[in-house]
């Protein structure tokens, strides 16, 4: 069995109950869902380093980190980095050791069918009308993880700190720092473009490799499209309904979107 969850945004103010329920959810994963083993995919933006100092966030949620580290040896934990926790990808490089089974920007797991997991910011970059430079976006995501702590302010309020950008890149940065609802449903209707692009046949070429299902998060908008074999995992209470804590269960090759019920 494969369990995937995305966009928990631990560290974001005002979601204490959702954070507590995520801790309870990990107990359920350990004691029930993956009791006999399997894969847990953390599909990015599990932590939110754009709004608070990264060390403060990691210390505050040390209990959740401990639960992840202490999952049964039969459970493979995969950490796919998102834009709000891109900094996490550098931690294994510092010490040449990975605390989980795998770290990275994507992973493929075979469970009867082949599932490709990415956070989804990649799709936004590819469909962004300002700039399609993936390295630029990831560089900004990395720096924003640092600036939130350096300045003592939420990264959403400090995009102007980055002074080396061109006029178009300033617009690009300003756009990426808006919340998903306003950013992806503004004048360019990016969410629709991202969804259409994710479902398209060109994804095998643009994302690389062969796979049956594409699974991503990022937009906070859950859906499952059987025709194109595309799934968005949604978010952990960051959708329009804060009680909608979404996750994905894949059993015997069949994916099923789920809502966590406390």
Describe this structure in words.
The chain has 10 helices and 11 strands. It is α/β, with parallel strands linked by helices. The protein has one domain (2-125, 183-259): Purple Acid Phosphatase, chain A, domain 2 (4-Layer Sandwich). Strand 5 and strand 6 form a beta hairpin. Helix 1 packs parallel to helix 3. The radius of gyration is 18 Å and the shape is globular. The two termini are 21 Å apart.
What's the short version?
The protein has 262 residues and is of the alpha/beta class. It is built from ten helices and eleven strands.
Tally of individual helices? 10
Biggest sheet architecture: 6 strands, mixed
Q: Helical content, roughly?
A: 25-40%
- Report the portion of residues in β strands: 15-25%
Quote the average pLDDT.
Answer: 83
- The strand count comes to 11
Under the CATH scheme, the architecture is 4-Layer Sandwich
CATH fold-level topology: Purple Acid Phosphatase, chain A, domain 2
What structural class is derived from the secondary structure elements? alpha/beta
H/E topology pattern: EHEHHEHEEEHHHHHHEEEEE
CATH class: Alpha Beta
Span between N and C termini? 21 Å
- In the CATH hierarchy, what is the superfamily? Metallo-dependent phosphatases
Q: Shape, please? A: globular
Calculate Rg over CA atoms. 18 Å
Question: In total, how many domains does the architecture comprise?
Answer: 1
Low-confidence parts:
157-167
Biggest sheet strand line-up: 4-3-2-1-10-11
């Amino acid at each position: 069995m494969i369990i995937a969850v995305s966009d928990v945004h631990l560290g974001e103010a005002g979601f204490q109950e959702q954070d507590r329920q995520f801790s309870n959810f990990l107990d359920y994963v350990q004691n029930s869902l993956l009791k006999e083993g399997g894969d847990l995919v953390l599909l990015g933006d599990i932590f939110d380093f754009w709004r608070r100092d990264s060390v403060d966030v990691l210390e505050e949620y040390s209990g959740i980190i401990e639960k992840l580290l202490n999952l049964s040896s039969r459970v493979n934990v995969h950490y796919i980095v998102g834009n709000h926790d891109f900094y996490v990808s550098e931690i294994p490089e510092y010490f040449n050791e990975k605390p989980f089974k795998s770290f990275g920007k994507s992973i493929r797991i075979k469970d009867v069918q082949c599932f490709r997991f990415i956070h989804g910011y990649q799709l936004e970059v590819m469909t962004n009308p300002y700039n399609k430079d993936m390295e630029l976006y990831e560089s900004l995501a990395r720096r924003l993880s640092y600036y939130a702590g350096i300045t003592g302010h939420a990264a959403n309020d400090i995009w102007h700190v980055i002074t080396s950008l061109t006029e178009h890149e300033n617009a690009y940065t300003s756009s990426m720092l808006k919340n998903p609802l306003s950013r992806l449903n503004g004048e360019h209707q990016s969410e629709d473009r991202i969804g259409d692009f994710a479902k398209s046949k060109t994804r095998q070429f643009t994302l690389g490799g062969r796979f049956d299902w594409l699974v991503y998060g990022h937009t906070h908008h859950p859906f499952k499209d059987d025709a194109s074999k595309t799934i968005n995992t949604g978010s952990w209470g960051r959708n329009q309904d804060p009680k909608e804590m979404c996750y994905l269960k894949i059993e015997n090759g069949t994916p099923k979107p789920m809502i966590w019920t406390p």
